[in-house]
Amino acid sequence: MSHETREHHHEHGCGCGCQGERANPFAELSPILDHYADIPGSLITILQKAQELYGFLSVELMRYIALETHTSIAKVYGVATFYTQFRFKPVGKYLVMLCQGTACHVNGSKLVEEAVMDFLEIKEGETTADGLFTLNNVACLGCCSLSPVMMINDDTYGQLTKDKAIHILAELKEVASNETAGLATIEQEVIT
Amino acid sequence: MKIVIGTGSCGIAAGANKVQVAFDAIIAEKGLDLRVEKTGCIGTCYLEPIVDVVDDGGKKITFVNVTTDDTRRIIEDYIMGENELKELQISESDITMIGKQKRIVLRNSGLINPERIEDYLAVDGYLAAKKCLTEMTPEEIIETVEIAGLKGRGGAGFPTWFKWDAAKKSPGKTKYMVCNADEGDPGAFMDRSVLESDPHALIEGMLIGAKAIGANEGIIYVRAEYPLAIVRLQNAIDQAREKGFLGHNLFETGFDFDLRIKAGAGAFVCGEETALIASLEGERGMPRLKPPFPAQKGYWNKPTNINNVETFANVPWIFRNGGDAYAALGTKESKGTKVFALTGKIKKGGLVEIPMGLTLKDTIFDIGGGIKEDKAFKAVQMGGPSGGCIPASLLDTKIDYAEITKTGAIMGSGGMVVMDETTCMVDMARFFLDFTCNESCGKCTYCRVGTTRMLEILNRITQGEGRDGDIERLEELCYKIKDGSMCGLGQTAPNPILTTIKYFRNEYEDHIYHKKCTAKSCKPLLIYTIDKEKCVGCGACKKNCPVDAITGEKKKVHEINQDICIKCGKCFSVCKFDSVIID
Ligand SMILES: Cc1cc2nc3c(=O)[nH]c(=O)nc-3n(C[C@H](O)[C@H](O)[C@H](O)COP(=O)(O)O)c2cc1C
Ligand code: SF4
Ligand code: SF4
Ligand code: FES
Ligand code: FES
Q: What interface predicted TM-score (ipTM) does this complex get?
């Protein structure tokens, strides 16, 4: 399917919420749809790429994908909600993934979780009011010998204690506030 | 001379990338002629970051737990100077520990650079594939795997040759070879390490299997949580294609085979074969009834063979050394080696590969160095959410599919989580049920509702609200769920409960009848008091108690009102004088 047809769809009731008057809000997804839309079995891959681009799957985005792949919105939503990787709400600047796998559990990940929830004042699955942190539990990050472990965006932190976890988060918070204050970014010290 | 840094996910988490940057900077500063290279991980996670210094004669010195500060000493004192830096070097006992292993699957891990196919070729890589494609018939390949006695390492331990034979005999021109790299057991990382440290071993194993069953297309289904593994694997696939080990007319035999990666999206049940296939097809990962087996109707209804990463990684070794050599290792029924991820309350946690037939005791105490802080061993969990807890009285059990199954646990994919006296076994059962209940796909009523009911009971017990008859109710539900579930997830979900009831019934009884958690792990069952002798009256506990259960004046002994206390544990964590006692 060509790019033009996609634009056309958009103008005639794309389901993205507009009345055909705005430019396609999901234009960046076009090359991906061009590549995958007609390959059978690609729905999960398309959803993954869409999430990479937009951070989460909005209803509009899922409706758009359904339309472009000639499937029902129910099917897209059904697949997306089956897998824990997909998110339906925006995430914070830092995605904190706390491991709750067996090794981490045995080594006290619950205590770390409690401390982190206290510090950020959110529960698992929520995002802080300032939009900085989203907290997610995951099952095993594959670094079990360093348990308890958490991953923040692309960095993994091991052998956590309550204090260490909070120290790391506090530091990120400071980095972020300095950034907004227009100061140079402090090189973030990785504590392991 | 070169410097080689272990950069598996573990190594990186321990700071390997920072160490590499530090080396690069010092080398540039001094203008040295030194190469810094990457390798995967050798499995001794507790020693990461690991740095090898290899001289031109190939002599290797290993430095462990290297910090960025150590890098300068390694270059200035060791490489440029005369200081041996013994204190940074790997200890004799760690070398012996590695020496006790038998490394087949991990033969190249931590030794070669996983990002360069030349390194794999230098250790005779792809020679086994060449032999299979150019000299052997599919029947001969399958026969060799049968002689080797290789069983699937993904959990169930099904003979690999039998599956290959079934897929080969299944009619049809289009067939698929699939690798299950979903590694769902939360607490295991054998497959991740192979993918990150020796991806070509997997590719070569799949190529040999593809030749045996007549598949021209292969797919590797990798867990989404393993980004580095996906990058290294894709890089390896590209290089293999470039060198002519994937693609058309391989080794000029007219045989075609190509591979692609499919990233999973986070669902434990997708490790089950039919659910994995549904997921590959872009659907919800729901298992379906077998038969038909994937060998008859798999991916897009074509004959499909699915094997685990470790299973494939054994294959090239078998063809280079012979099926007999592999079968010479292990026990009568379980041949070869098995990789385990030793974690939990263990001193020397990491990946170990041992010949089948070693005992659990050998593995945990000789190789793993025993229990952290020399506490008392309580149990070892094998098989993750499908497995069970094996108690101290059975530590002499041999690592063998049938022997482990006899205990009520399963061999599983290789997770070995060690627990000590501070781990509560009821809480462990609750932990696994929480996991399976979340991961049930919901198709079968027993699995969906049954696990929920069991979780509710276990939650109650660990919160001090256990009732007479709970143990029996759990047992009854366990057997019904085993019978009433369609796939392995539901059928094995009761194992963690059954084994803990079998071996640790007293702990269940303590929780239910005496409202006591001997491991001091279930918070609501603990009683917090203040030691009159030790309390200095600082008031920290009083200030932090969320329900004002603590009374006392400044500089006088404080007291906890048990009727108000909600057992949150705050006072215990804030008291700097260890005056709060848990009982
Ligand atoms: C719920 C469930 C989860 C599973 N997860 C995995 C897994 O993560 N990795 C794996 O290799 N096998 C897993 N298996 C086993 C596979 O279904 C299958 O038996 C295996 O991939 C076959 O490969 P093998 O014969 O080489 O072991 C799982 C099975 C069940 C029932
Ligand atoms: S046993 Fe559980 S996970 Fe398996 S098919 Fe039934 S409901 Fe789904
Ligand atoms: S355990 Fe919590 S509720 Fe109880 S006295 Fe201590 S701080 Fe207060
Ligand atoms: S259990 Fe936490 S990293 Fe594996
Ligand atoms: S150091 Fe790599 S698996 Fe642990």
A: 0.90
